[in-house]
Write a structure and sequence with these properties.
Number of helices: 4
Distance between the termini: 47 Å
Order of helices and strands: HHHH
Number of strands: 0
Mean pLDDT: 78
Helix content: 55-70%
Strand content: under 5%
Largest sheet: none
Radius of gyration: 21 Å
Structural class: mainly alpha
Shape: elongated
Length: 70
């Protein structure tokens, strides 16, 4: 899955942090902080996907429901 960054500059910062983590310049705990601060939270991604999918499909109420509403 492709990573989504909160902004372009945070993406650059996160990629630099990943490079430092790979060579051992920063700890795993510090890398998690960069993940938290730079990446879009997964829950936001899931909500965006649900909203975009639901809004594109028109839904008509059933006749039974429509007659009860009147």
């Amino acid at each position: 899955m492709k990573k989504r960054y909160q902004s372009e500059i945070l993406g650059v910062i996160h990629q630099d942090a990943q490079a430092m983590f790979k060579v051992g310049a920063i700890s795993e705990a510090r890398m998690r902080e960069y993940d938290r601060d730079c990446l879009v939270p997964e829950t936001s991604l899931a909500q965006t996907t649900k909203r975009s999918g639901a809004s594109s499909i028109p839904v008509k109420p059933s006749r039974a429901y429509a007659s009860k509403a009147n």
